[in-house]
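Anyone up for a design puzzle?
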């Protein structure tokens, strides 16, 4: 789904679909933002068709997102989660002219001092959550509230 006047663009990660954004979109709607202004983008191969010649490289995903944003015609508020968050940061670094504001929950992966560690066997989801919070990740309710406040100004 894409709208020419969409001010909010949301890119999900893996293994999610655009449904991951439903609670946040509901909060934004309750705050008075029209659903027509909010667009969920699914990266190729993740609940979206695989374009011919698409190589699934970091550059390919960045270029895909640049193409989506270029079609909008004006800078957008761009939000990414998980792999989608990495795509958002790559676009923010290479084409900041397409973005009015951006948010990502994976900014830490771009820090050269960050070591990516696999969770120990049996650690469960708590390890990921704790790592996210140490890296500055937002708990779900805080993210929804912050985004709602941003767009309701």
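Challenge accepted. My sequence:
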């Amino acid at each position: 789904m894409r709208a020419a006047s969409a001010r909010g663009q949301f890119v999900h990660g893996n293994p999610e679909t655009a449904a991951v954004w439903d609670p946040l979109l509901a909060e934004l709607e309750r705050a008075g933002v029209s659903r027509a202004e909010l667009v969920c983008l699914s990266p190729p191969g993740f609940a979206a068709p695989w374009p011919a010649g698409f190589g699934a490289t970091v550059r390919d995903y960045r270029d895909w997102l640049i193409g989506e944003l270029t079609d909008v015609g004006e800078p957008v508020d761009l939000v990414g989660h998980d792999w989608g968050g990495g795509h958002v940061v790559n676009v923010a670094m290479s084409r900041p002219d397409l973005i009015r504001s951006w948010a990502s929950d994976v900014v830490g992966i771009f820090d050269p001092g960050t070591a990516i560690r696999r969770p120990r066997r049996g650690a469960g989801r708590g390890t990921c959550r704790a790592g996210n919070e140490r890296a500055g990740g937002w708990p779900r309710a805080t993210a929804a509230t912050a985004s709602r406040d941003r767009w309701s100004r």
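A detail worth pointing out: Residues 124-153 have pLDDT under 50 and may be disordered.
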